[in-house]
Amino acid sequence: MPPLSDRTRLIASATRRGQGRRPVSPPVERASTMLSDRAEAMRDEAEGPVYGLQGTSAAQALREALADLEGAERAFVVPSGLAAVTVPLLALTRPGDEVVTTDAVYGPTRRFLTRYQAARGVTTRFLPAEADAQAVLAAVTERTRVVLMESPASLTFEMVDVAAVASGCRARGVATVLDNTWGAGLAFRPLAHGVDVSVQALTKYAAGHSDLLMGGIAASDPRCLSAIANTIEDLGWHVSPDDAWLALRGLRTLPLRYAEQGRSALKVAEWLKARPEVSRVLYPPLPGSVGHDLWRRDFAGAASLMGVVMRGGDTAAGRRMLDALSLFGLGYSWGGFESLITHEAHQMAYRDHPSTLEGELIRLHVGLEDPDDLIADLERGLAAFAG
Ligand SMILES: *Cc1c(COP(=O)(O)O)cnc(C)c1O
């Protein structure tokens, strides 16, 4: 039989035979303690977990589905997307080590590196946001233990040649970690491109309904896997069975939501690009956008998150635009069923290599609404921006 598509595999794991009569979805087992019948059975691992921290059946099923999706030996779930980034960075570094990444990395990841990791004696080199694979590899020193990538990057959506960075790092004995929230383990499979650890905020597309926080970590390298497993155990991270159950339910429809939202986002991006109020749309799937060639080479789909650099304007104009919209929720995060918009220029100030954009930066998440309705809403927003 030819390999099954993602859509099929994410569902087939629920209908697999040989498990006896059971509900389609695993039960939600709310448990700190699991009881055994006999003293001897308490030490029998084949009987399943003895304590809730080890994860009950919904979390186990979710971990298996995520490992399958990412093409990984094993996957872990942690309480937030941010924890999915911080766990491998903690697991793979020791005081005196260095991490290499770029200015374009997710804001809270940057805060973890500059506040917590720096205090722990782990330093970070932030390269310019647009650093290519050659520049990233040139920054690696004998102290570098991890190269952290995000492609496309948060906020400004730069792409990097992941395979080139991964193979260069492997040759130098440096681990690679990639935040794959935009690719969702669906449009892009980091491990197949040589990356050691793929992480994503399951909070976003996997959950899909803006009703839970969770992170996923996937890897195949045995040393990475044991370091990550130990770190999760040492920190005591755990996800609730209700959240694991919801995230698993989200995975069943992830490919359909992702594809539909990507299609709508491209339509919205094309419309925005042609507008006089807009200078540039930062969306790699859009022809002519930053990173389009790498996106075409490496990605099998598109997320629905983009940046919009306006032609000039100021904070007041950006706020007028957001206030004039009625279909876009004013809220952070993305990947849910609903469209969201934020006004982001202030975040550029934290960068080591501040780049000045030619106008206000708006970040837009396209949900499952009809894209024509969203475009009509944005038309009102652009009129308000222009004043
Ligand atoms: C949202 C996000 C995270 C963090 O996810 P949380 O669940 O909100 O902690 C990490 N990386 C990227 C790129 C994100 O957009």
Protein architecture, described:
37% of the residues lie in helices and 15% in strands. It has eleven helices and twelve strands. It is of the alpha/beta class and 387 residues long. The longest helix is centred in the middle third of the chain and has 33 residues, at 241-273. The strands form two sheets. It has a seven-stranded mixed β-sheet, with helices on both faces. The model has no long low-confidence stretch (mean pLDDT 95). Pyridoxal-5'-phosphate binds at residues 80-82, 85, 106, 150, 154, 179, 181, 201, 203-204, 213, 215.
Question: How would the blueprint of this fold be written?
Answer:
Layout: H1 6-15, H2 57-70, E1 74-78, H3 81-91, E2 98-102, H4 107-119, E3 123-127, H5 133-138, E4 144-150, H6 162-171, E5 175-179, E6 197-201, E7 215-219, H7 222-235, H8 241-273, E8 278-282, H9 292-298, E9 305-310, H10 315-324, E10 329-330, E11 340-343, E12 361-365, H11 371-386
Parallel strand pairs: 2-3, 2-4, 4-5, 5-6, 10-11
Antiparallel strand pairs: 1-7, 6-7, 8-9, 9-12, 11-12
